[in-house]
Amino acid sequence: MSLWTIFVRLSPYARVGTALAPFLIAIVLRLMFGNNRVTRALLSVGTIWFAVNVFMAPYSAGMRQDLVNLRHAVFR
Questions:
Q1: Alpha helices in the chain (DSSP H)
Q2: Residue 1 DSSP symbol
């Protein structure tokens, strides 16, 4: 079982958690240790990770099916 398979099987709430956790951890570390090179890098990586998760979510199989179902429900 690959790592991607585990990620695909996560619930929607767990996916949101995996998208937000690095970002929130970076913010907490920045508040604790101040503005330095490490916290800036962690905040940048956390922001990019969140953006990638948000922008790639519509391309997952479950999200595609949800969008198709929504289109059928709206245009009935």
A1: 3-8, 12-33, 37-56, 61-74
A2: -
- Tell me the mean pLDDT in the region 1-10: 66
Q: Domain map of the chain by residue range?
A: 3-74
* Spatial distance between the Cα atoms of 1 and 39, rounded to a whole number of angstroms: 34
Query: Per residue in 10-69, pLDDT tens?
Result: 677 777 788 889 989 999 999 999 999 999 999 999 999 888 887 776 666 776 777 777
Largest Cα–Cα distance in the chain?
A: 55
Instruction: Give a three-class secondary structure readout of 35-46.
Output: CCHHHHHHHHHH
pTM of the model: 0.62
Q: Name the one residue in this structure whose structure tokens are 């709430």.
A: 13
